[in-house]
Specification:
Blueprint: H1 2-5, E1 13-15, E2 24-31, E3 34-41, E4 47-50, E5 59-67, E6 74-75, E7 84-87, E8 91-99
Antiparallel strand pairs: 1-2, 2-3, 3-8, 4-7, 5-6, 5-8
Length: about 100
């Protein structure tokens, strides 16, 4: 639950997010220029997912946090690409984006 409650605060609104993979759940929330994306990988394999951020002029990843069987809200630094994210097996990944 920390992947949600730590980052999604009062004043955030849920925005459209979807996945074409039944083993991947995605939700997104926005407040001002900050967007929080939470990805839940229920698969036993690594999954790559593409973020469609075409509605924004600029997108910067502020942070990425991952929870797995062995990690609890671990800050993993910034991904190499903001458009494609690799999700660990059976993990919850939270991306904090600054979008304009």
């Amino acid at each position: 639950m920390g992947n949600f409650s730590r980052f999604i605060r009062p004043g955030f609104s849920r925005i459209h997010a979807e996945s074409g993979n039944e083993l991947l759940r995605v939700s997104a929330y926005m407040s001002g220029s900050r967007v929080i994306v939470v990805c839940i990988n229920n698969s036993s394999e690594f999954l790559g997912t593409r973020l469609d951020l075409d509605g924004f002029q600029t997108v910067t990843v502020s942070a990425l946090y991952r929870t797995t069987e062995s990690l609890e809200l671990a800050s993993t630094g910034r991904p190499l690409s903001v458009r494609t994210i690799i999700l660990h097996p059976r993990s919850v990944t939270t991306l904090i984006l600054e979008c304009e």
